[in-house]
Amino acid sequence: QVQLVESGGGLVQTGGSLRLSCAASGRTFSRYAMGWFRQAPGNEREFVAAISSIGLSTNYSDSVKGRFTISRDNAKNTLYLQMNNLKPEDTAVYYCAVSGSLTTIRWEYYYWGQGTQVTVSS
Predict the structure, then answer these.
(1) Core vs surface per residue 36-52: b (16+ CB within 10 A) or e
(2) How far apart are CA 30 and CA 55, in angstroms?
(3) What pLDDT sits at residue 52?
(4) What is the mean pLDDT of residues 78-89?
(5) Out of 20, 63, 74, 112, which could bridge 30 as a Cys pair, Cβ 3.0 to 4.6 Å?
(6) Which string of DSSP letters, residue by residue, matches 21-51?
(7) In this structure, are residues 58 and 122 in contact, taking their beta carbons and an 8 Å threshold?
(8) Distance, CA of 116 to CA of 80 (rounded, Å)
């Protein structure tokens, strides 16, 4: 069992930056690939970014590529998402999640955090 707690969300203006964190419990954090997803009201939960278990490989959705950076610190059991040049369409609840592999597919993630709200004002 892995428990995940996101933090770092908030209200920011267009063009601003935020850094999300996801603190994980358990000793096996470094065995798992991790991902960030987001869900806006009325929309499906969508893939944002993923990182392999030791951080050597990453994957991004086209909508955030070049603006967002996913990283992890296995010594601290923490996953990060640095978000730069934020746009109003980035407004959503952001979730971190655990998977056995580097994947963009939502149902291949089996532990989820409770989410943190990101709101980008125009």
Answers:
(1) bbbeeeeeebebbbbbb
(2) 9
(3) 97
(4) 98
(5) 74
(6) EEEE-STTGGGSEEEEEEE-TTS--EEEEEE
(7) no
(8) 13
